[in-house]
């Protein structure tokens, strides 16, 4: 273990009003995801009862649900998230800008070293540059402070009574125990999923890679602050510079749904290449939304309202089929409890939630 | 790029934006006022620095009550009742 650096953690530190504003949005999101969501489900059931049959496509369901309640549902889902990032006074981007000099100074102090390899000439794929995923203006590479912005925004991604950090530990604990000597957090972002694996397997050599330098800098900063020895590097997941059969365990956390299928296939093949024979490939992601057509209606609608342009593509894709085709000997999709206790694969969830699934595949 | 529209008349989309920001400002004011009241009660005087640092804030339950009052009209539940055979047009 490295020696933790004794200093105040640098990050977005909102003033009292901005904190209250973000808290207001969190409350609004919880209300939207419980009371309004449930009222929408009641309306769905009533409309289905009147028609005498369930709709069979998203489009048909949207047409059936047209009305005042669905308008409010959609508006709130889109705009609570928009305000969270983009409110001109208290949005996270505004907060970051108010602290820009201080945050940039902290980033300037980080020089590439053996724990942080950056590649300033990296080329971003078109699909990565073209979309502001989850309404993050400029995306997670568009600004030097984007890593801090994303780190703060993640706090309220899963508001329904789930602590955001806890989710990553749950995922790490759900992975079958093993003698993992080298572990990779593939598409690690700000490192939230890297840390629990380092904590569970302290003797393992733990790596994280991502295409976003601003995110990697924050991941590295937090690793240094907490005394965790983690090797981060800036790479395109489609083609990395890790040797063949280098890792015992490669894992991803909600990133598969951000890729078009041609990229997903390359990334899955790359994971296979860098895994040792017998090594595990683990993906915590969203797939097979429970709750029949209503579940799909909410999830595909979320994709549209939150700029998640490949979310539905991944949902409708036979990912297990791809894993097997590439050569993984075992590939299964398991239910994942996000902390709400809900793991059903069938019923409509009581509160709005992502359709978590844990994919575990063995090379 | 144009923002997505959710209501039949996009005036409602715009108005919702105005109302939500206004409501958030009310919430922020409530939070600050509670801090001021706490400090006034305790010390009898206050400074801006003290308001900023005061650890007392709105509890999640207070937040949720506020949000419920604000958004319950969306659910359009009647607060009073007239039985069906007594209803008038």
Write the layout of secondary structure elements.
The complex is a heterodimer of chains A (363) and B (89).
Chain A (H helix, E strand, L loop, with lengths): L15 H36 L6 H8 L2 H19 L5 H7 L1 H9 L7 E2 L8 H4 L16 H8 L10 H11 L7 E5 L7 H7 L4 E6 L2 H14 L3 E5 L12 E7 L7 H14 E12 L5 H14 L5 H5 L3 H8 L3 E6 L20 E7 L1
Helix pairs in contact in A: 1-3, 7-10, 8-9
Chain B lengths: L9 H34 L4 H6 L6 H16 L14
Structure characteristics:
heterodimer, A: alpha/beta, globular, B: 89 residues, 63% helix, flat
Strand content of chain B: under 5%
In total, how many beta strands of chain B?
Answer: 0
Give the class of chain A from helix and strand content and strand pairing.
alpha/beta
Low-pLDDT runs of 5+ residues of chain A are: none
Largest interface (CB within 8 Å) is between:
A-B, 33 and 34 residues
Span from first to last CA of chain B?
Answer: 45 Å
Numbering strands along the chain, what is their spatial order in the largest sheet of chain A?
1-4-3-2-5-6-8-7
Overall SS class of chain B: mainly alpha
The number of distinct helices of chain A, counting runs of at least 4 residues, comes to 14
* Gyration radius of chain A, in Å: 21 Å
Overall residue-averaged pLDDT value of chain B:
85
Count all strands of chain A and give the number.
8
Global Rg of chain B: 20 Å
Residues in helices of chain B, as a percent range:
55-70%
Report the sheet with the most strands of chain B, covering strand number, pairing sense and barrel closure.
none
Helix content of chain A: 40-55%
Strand content of chain A: 5-15%
Poorly predicted runs of chain B are none
Task: Give, in order, the helices and strands of chain B.
Answer: HHH
Profile the largest sheet of chain A: 8 strands, mixed
């Amino acid at each position: 273990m490295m020696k933790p650096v004794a200093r105040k953690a640098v990050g977005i530190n909102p003033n009292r009003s901005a904190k209250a504003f973000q808290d207001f949005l969190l409350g609004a999101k919880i209300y939207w995801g419980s009371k309004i969501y449930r009222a929408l489900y009641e309306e769905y059931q009533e409309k289905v009862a009147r028609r005498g049959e369930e709709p069979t496509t998203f489009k048909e369901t949207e047409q059936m649900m047209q009305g005042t309640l669905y308008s409010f549902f959609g508006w709130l889902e889109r705009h609570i998230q928009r305000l969270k990032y983009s409110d001109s006074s208290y949005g996270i981007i505004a907060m970051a800008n108010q602290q820009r000099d201080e945050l940039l100074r902290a980033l300037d102090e980080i020089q590439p070293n053996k724990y942080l390899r950056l590649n300033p000439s990296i080329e971003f794929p078109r699909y990565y540059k073209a979309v502001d995923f989850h309404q993050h203006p400029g995306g997670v590479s568009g600004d030097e402070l984007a890593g801090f912005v994303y780190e703060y925004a993640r706090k309220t991604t899963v508001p329904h009574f789930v602590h955001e950090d806890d989710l990553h530990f749950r995922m790490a604990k759900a992975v079958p125990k093993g003698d993992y000597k080298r572990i990779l957090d593939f598409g690690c972002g700000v490192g939230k999923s890297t840390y629990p694996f380092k904590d569970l397997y302290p003797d393992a050599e733990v790596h994280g890679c991502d295409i976003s330098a601003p995110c990697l800098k924050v991941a590295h900063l937090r690793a240094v602050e907490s005394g965790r020895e983690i090797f981060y590097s800036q790479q395109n997941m489609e083609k990395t510079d890790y040797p063949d059969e280098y890792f015992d365990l490669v894992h991803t956390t909600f990133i598969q749904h951000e890729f078009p299928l041609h990229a997903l296939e390359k990334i899955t093949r790359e994971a296979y290449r860098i895994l040792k024979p017998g090594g595990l490939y683990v993906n915590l992601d969203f797939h097979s939304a429970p709750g029949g057509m209503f579940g799909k209606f909410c999830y595909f609608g979320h994709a549209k309202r939150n700029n998640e342009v490949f979310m539905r593509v991944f949902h409708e894709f036979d990912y297990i089929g791809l894993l097997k085709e590439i050569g993984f000997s075992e590939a299964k999709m398991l239910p994942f409890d996000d902390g709400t206790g809900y793991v059903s694969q069938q019923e409509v969830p009581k509160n709005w939630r992502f359709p978590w699934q844990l994919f575990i595949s063995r090379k | 790029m144009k923002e997505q529209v959710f209501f039949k008349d996009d005036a409602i989309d715009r108005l919702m934006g105005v109302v939500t920001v206004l409501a958030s400002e009310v919430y922020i004011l409530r939070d600050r006022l509670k801090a001021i009241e706490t400090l006034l009660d305790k010390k009898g005087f206050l400074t801006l620095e003290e308001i900023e640092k005061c650890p007392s804030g709105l509890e999640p339950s207070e937040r949720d009550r506020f949000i419920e009052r604000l958004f319950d009209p969306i659910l359009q539940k009647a607060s009073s009742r007239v039985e069906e055979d007594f209803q008038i047009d």
